[in-house]
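HUMAN: I'm a chemist; might I ask for a sequence paired with its structure tokens?

ASSISTANT:
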Amino acid sequence: MHRANQILLAATALLLTSCGQDSQTAGIEGTGAPAPAAVTATGPVTGFGSIFVNGVEYNTTGAQIQIDGQPGTESQLAIGEIVTVNGTLNTNDTTGTAARVTFSGNVLGPVSAVDVPTDTFVLLGQTALVTTSTVFDPNIQPQQISGIKTGDLYEVSGFPDSTGQIVASHIQIAAANASLRVEGAVQGLNTGTSVFQLNALTVDYSAATLHGTLANGSLVDVEGGTVSAGGALLAAVVTVLPPPGGAPNSRGEVEGVITSFTSSSDFVVNGVHVTTTASTLFELNGVTLGVNVRVDVEGSYDSSGTLVASSVEAGDE
């Protein structure tokens, strides 16, 4: 072999070796193994030993747990309660790490009416619907609508439907000294008399500490100790809540009931605007998408806060 060819071959081998080392180094530095993605996931708790939400197991070591606005522990959570997990999702899409887990019941108050034939009951002007997926506190007997007793205090966690009715995911007996609470969208705001409606409940906030600016349609959390003779909740604290959803370019997972439906490519779930694309995977299980259909949506948030779905699954899990 000529010396020139030997030199050329040696140089080529050195170049290939260098490229291989650079590729390995890049993989070690992270480009070969994508980092976990930021995620906001909302849905019912389905398991513990960590916490399982929307089919993902989130490690809760070091996570902040908040329950009805107060610091809590994972042991205080229950199967069926609707929580929001903020954290990271691993690339396998089945595990992640929770930085924060938030639970806030839809309503906590005394039951004023129970309608067994329709599987509904009313507390603080909010109607709750019991379904085959509803999880009952073990102390509620029997484990069905007939176990709900008028006058007793309960906390309901679930999904509001298009009428404002709560599709109950979890029902528990509340402590006798628990503060009355209710979440919902403001209706009929009257700043002159300091009252507004949350479905059938009148809220008097004239003596309340107000966090945020009230407006019709605002999502609020109301805490109060008493109900007036006229049936109004005398609010102690009213907090205007931020719109649900996640940060732009972050992953999003939301389970809930469709409350507004324009088309299968444009609808709202749990206050989150969802759009689909030609590449969205639909698993409808024979269900036609529409108002009050329960769905599980996964995707990514765009710059406007819309969840662009990679998958949409219909029906109870």
Summary: The CA atoms of residues 67 and 76 lie 8 Å apart. The first strand starts at residue 37 and ends at 48.
